[in-house]
């Protein structure tokens, strides 16, 4: 519960459903991340899949971010066209049409482009287009440090073989090693997350050392994930971090012990539209909050967010079910009143942003402004 | 598994991830629904929240639909501006700004507008704007027939009292009774769904009879939901149906016994981007498939859709987890190959459409065309 008159007035005013960004909290989150990077002596290239906003990436750049990381080629194109000249795409690209479009946008922006690969097929597809475009691309080799998603096993021969293939291809260079410890979202608390971060660091720096020992230069050792970045105790040997969610935080991060409620910058403002004997219904459903119960399919939280009626913010209640345009708050025999406002703290902020055209930003004095979600729905 | 050379060639060609609509299946689905309405002697006003497409609503109109039903005011505005002159908004509206914009769009289109209410507050908000706009609005009273979402209990005094309030307000008229038996999605099979439909019919027609007995004219008795419409045995006394999902169908409808696999018109085409010892990863995650395991938070299906590798379509495998841009297929020790195509049958088609700018439509001869999702992201 936060009591803040300009904020409460703004919440009463906004048209619902709205994705509200509290600027004061956002600013602190951006500064905190920059502080972590500075103190650790690593570069910060935040993952923009969380906000998909040129304005917000600009704030991160002003606070010291060296560049941005994008989820897909199409998302990267939006940031290249939006004036970002240091762009990493954290996705194994294979489709030459997509790579060609990405390279054209990078050339137009005069940008430094870094991609990730985990298969010879991906190296060859990028090599072919880089040669056609005569444009340089730096390739990270992605290492699977435990999520079991993309990346190859952290074993020297396989990694060295991909690095070797990269070295043989004109216009390609080896950027370094790349990982995402998304399995940290399956941890049961801060201590386990710190351990995941340390294991990742040791795997990645050990592999970098082995490559260097074999005579291969490793320019960067890049790791990601909000939980591990926030709770890591040691960054020695790493050169770069790529957290995404940390700019907003959400109830998953609170449940994991990564953030406090006061550190969540993103909420959804909804209106009660109906009420019955057991549930009150709000105008935010799965097409606003998404059905995510947590990242990577984690189900650490039951329900679909926590609702805070503005008339009585200390009365917190979970959203227990969602239809597409309706959220169900279990109110028992104390129904809310149609027309009243609730503030909802989503489980997972990232997919929420992708569902709206614009973010509603509230400044500390209660002024509201709208910021486009520039890279919304960039699926390719 | 369907073997069809033009279709397979089209699937190989399309850029992924793509929401593919098979035109031949779509046409059959549209005709089947129109046939049900004609045979039952009821009007068909399909729910457009499923497709959000002017083109597709146009096909439904050509096949005999009397009008369209929209999920929210903003969605209705898109269809009013797109030339639809018989529009129902299946949502209790309370915000006068939204109502004013909706009325302005209805006036511009010269449209007949029907809204639903379940509280005096909603009646009064609509009455105030209708009077300001001097534009007629017909109001349904929504009845809760078991979903426990919106609507009032099916009891004569409460319903008559709302009808009476409507009758007292200039520019408002009573459209009739309105229900959505979404709890049919919680049924364990066709027999139980038929029973939900019959219970709904008896409740609704009984209430209409009681109102008429009290001297109140009841122009329409309108029911919705794909499962109940497809499996109802009797429509006597009903005047209108509003199914949405039936235009596409999905794995939830198959699991419920409402549709067969051959009746699903919507699939997602994805590419394998990485593979490890246990899972193959495709380029469609929760930002493409949504995290819905079923409508209204139903979890009849485990996983997030069924994947059919195009190289071996009989090898069906569930998507067991989703990251935002990655789908995890459990391939055991037979990994798929990066670059190969998979066709994914989503659990719930409606939220998938809302995540893309356009649908990729494939005609029976394999020609591809793109159709915009006109009302995508209409949250207000």
What does this structure look like?
- 2 copies of one chain form a homodimer.
- With 380 residues, chain A is of the alpha/beta class.
- Chain A has 2 domains: 5-20 and 259-372, Lyase, Ornithine Decarboxylase, Chain A, domain 1; 47-243, Alanine racemase (TIM Barrel), CATH 3.20.20.10.
- The first copy, chain A, has helices at residues 5-13, 23-40, 54-62, 73-81, 96-109, 120-133, 156-168, 190-213, 226-231, 251-256, 286-289, 349-353, and strands spanning 18-22, 43-44, 68-70, 86-92, 112-117, 137-142, 172-179, 220-224, 240-242, 266-275, 279-282, 306-309, 317-322, 327-330, 341-345, 358-362, 368-372.
- In chain A, helix 5 (96-109) links the parallel strand 4 and strand 5 (112-117).
- The mean pLDDT of chain A is 96.
- Chains A and B meet through strand 10, helix 11 and strand 13 of A and strand 10, helix 11 and strand 13 of B.
Quick structural gist:
2 copies of one chain form a homodimer. Chain A contains 12 helices and 17 strands.
The major β-sheet of chain A equals: 8 strands, parallel
Oligomeric status: homodimer
Give the overall pLDDT of chain A as a whole number: 96
Please, how many domains of chain A? Answer: 2
Order of helices and strands of chain A: HEHEHEHEHEHEHEHEHEHEEHEEEEHEE
> What name is given to the CATH topology of the largest domain in chain A?
TIM Barrel
What is the tally of beta strands of chain A?
A: 17
| Apparent shape of chain A | elongated
- What share of the residues of chain A lie within helices? 25-40%
Give the termini distance of chain A in whole angstroms: 40 Å
- Number of helical regions of chain A: 12
In CATH, the architecture of the largest domain in chain A is: Alpha-Beta Barrel
Share in β-strands of chain A: 15-25%
The largest contact between protein chains, plus residue counts on each side, is: A-B, 63 and 63 residues
Any idea what the radius of gyration of chain A is?
22 Å
Strand order of the largest sheet of chain A: 2-9-8-7-6-5-4-3
Which structural category fits the helices and strands of chain A?
alpha/beta
What is the highest CATH level, the class of the largest domain in chain A? Alpha Beta
Q: Spell out the CATH superfamily of the largest domain in chain A.
A: Alanine racemase
| Low-pLDDT sequence parts of chain A | none
């Amino acid at each position: 519960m936060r009591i803040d008159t300009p904020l409460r007035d703004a919440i009463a005013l906004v048209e619902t459903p709205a994705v509200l960004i509290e600027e004061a909290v956002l600013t602190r989150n951006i500064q905190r991340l920059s502080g972590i990077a500075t103190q650790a002596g690593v570069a910060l290239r935040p993952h923009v899949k969380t906000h998909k906003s040129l304005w917000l990436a600009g704030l991160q750049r002003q606070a010291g971010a060296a560049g941005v990381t994008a989820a897909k080629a199409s998302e990267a194109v939006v940031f290249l066209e939006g004036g970002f000249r240091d762009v990493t795409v954290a996705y194994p690209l294979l489709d030459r049409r997509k790579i060609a479009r990405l390279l054209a946008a990078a050339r137009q922006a005069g940008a430094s482009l870094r991609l990730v690969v985990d298969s010879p097929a991906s190296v060859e597809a990028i090599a072919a287009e880089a040669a056609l475009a005569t444009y340089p691309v730096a390739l990270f080799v992605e290492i699977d440090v435990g999520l079991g998603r993309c990346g190859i096993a952290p074993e020297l021969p396989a990694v060295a073989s991909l690095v070797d293939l990269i070295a043989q291809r004109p216009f390609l260079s080896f950027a370094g090693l790349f990982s995402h410890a998304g399995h940290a979202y399956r941890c049961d608390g801060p201590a386990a997350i710190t351990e995941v971060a340390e294991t990742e660091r040791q795997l990645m720096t050990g592999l970098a050392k082995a490559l260097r020992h074999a005579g291969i230069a490793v320019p960067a050792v890049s790791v990601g994930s909000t939980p591990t970045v926030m709770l890591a105790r040691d960054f020695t040997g790493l050169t770069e971090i790529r957290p995404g969610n940390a700019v907003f935080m959400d109830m998953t991060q609170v449940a994991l012990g990564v953030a406090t409620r006061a550190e969540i910058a993103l909420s959804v403002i909804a209106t009660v539209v109906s009420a019955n004997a057991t549930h009150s219904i709000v105008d935010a459903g799965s097409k606003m909050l998404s059905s995510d119960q947590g990242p990577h399919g984690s189900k650490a939280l039951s329900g679909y967010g926590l609702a805070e009626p503005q008339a009585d913010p200390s009365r917190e209640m979970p959203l227990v079910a969602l239809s597409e345009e309706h959220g169900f708050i279990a109110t028992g025999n104390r129904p809310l009143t149609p027309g009243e406002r609730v503030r909802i703290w989503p489980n997972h902020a990232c997919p929420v942003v992708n569902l709206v055209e614009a973010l509603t930003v509230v400044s500390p004095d209660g002024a509201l402004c709208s910021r486009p979600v520039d890279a919304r729905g960039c699926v390719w």
